[in-house]
Write a structure and sequence with these properties.
Blueprint lengths: L1 E12 L2 E12 L3 E5 L6 H7 L8 E6 L2 E2 L7 H7 E4 L11 H11 L5 H14 L15 H14 L4 E5 L7 H16 L4 E5 L3 H7 L2 E6 L2 E7 H6 L4 H11 L2
Parallel strand pairs: 3-8, 3-9, 6-7, 7-8
Antiparallel strand pairs: 1-2, 1-4, 4-5, 9-10
The protein binds adenosine-5'-triphosphate.
Amino acid sequence: MSMIEFHDVEKYYGDFHALKDINLTIDKGEVVVIIGPSGSGKSTLLRSMNGLNTISSGKLIVNNFDLADKKTDINKIRREVGMVFQHFNLYANKTVLQNVSLAPQLVLKEDKAQSEKEAMELLKLVGLEDKAQSYPSMLSGGQEQRVAIARSLAMKPQALLFDEPTSALDPEMIGDVLDVMKKVAADDGMTMIVVTHEMGFAKEVADRLVFMADGEILEDDDTKSFFAHPKEERARQFLSKIINH
Ligand SMILES: Nc1ncnc2c1ncn2[C@@H]1O[C@H](COP(=O)(O)OP(=O)(O)OP(=O)(O)O)[C@@H](O)[C@H]1O
C-alpha cells in the first residue's frame, strides 16, 4: 500500500524550476532518507508531502488524498502526516507536558487526563519524563528536539517527515535524537521520510535512499545497493564527500 505518490510533479518558485519531473512512491511503513547537495530541492519535496508547499503541476497523492483537489482537507493531511523541523518550534510559554498534550486536546478532542497520560508515555519513549514540568528554555537543543518528536507522535500520525532534524544541534546532542528516531522507525506501521546528512542513520535505519540534485531525483535505490554501488556519478561524489567529511 502506498502512502505517498508523486506523478510527474513539477514545482516552480517564480521562474525557478525547483522540482523536475518527480516520480516517487513511498509505501506505508517504509523509512526513506533523502540526500543531496544544498539547494537540490529536498525540503521543497518534503514540504509538499503535507501541503506546506504546493506543487505547480503533476499529481500528488498522500494517504489516498489528492493534494491538488480543492476538496481535500489539508488540515487532515497535516494531522496524518506530521513534521519535525530543524528548529523545534516549541511553545516557549508552555511546559514540556503541555507542548506534547495540547494539540491532542484541541485537535483530536482528547480529554486532558488521557492526553497527559499519553504524553507522559511519549516523554518516556524520548527519555524526558523527568522534564515534563520544565519549559523549553530550560532544555538543551537535543532535548527540545526530542520533545518536538514526542509532540508529533502525540497526534498519532501515519507518517512523519523530518527536515534536517539534527543539523541545528551541537554534535554531542545528535546521537540521542537519532536514537529516538531509530525507535520511531522500529514501529513497523510508521512511514518516515527524513532529509539528513547523517549517513550512519541512513545506513542503519533507512529502507531506501533517494538522491536529489538540481531539483531532480537522480537515484532511488535500496540502502544496501546505494551504499555499495551508487549508480550515478554525482551520487557517488556526494557520498564520498560527506562520508570523508
Ligand atoms: N520560497 C521560495 N522562493 C523561491 N525560491 C525558493 C523558495 N524555497 C526554496 N527556494 C529555492 O529552491 C531551491 C531548492 O530549495 P530547497 O530548500 O528545497 O533545497 P534543499 O535541497 O532542501 O537545500 P538545503 O539542503 O540547503 O536545505 C533552492 O535554490 C532555493 O533557493
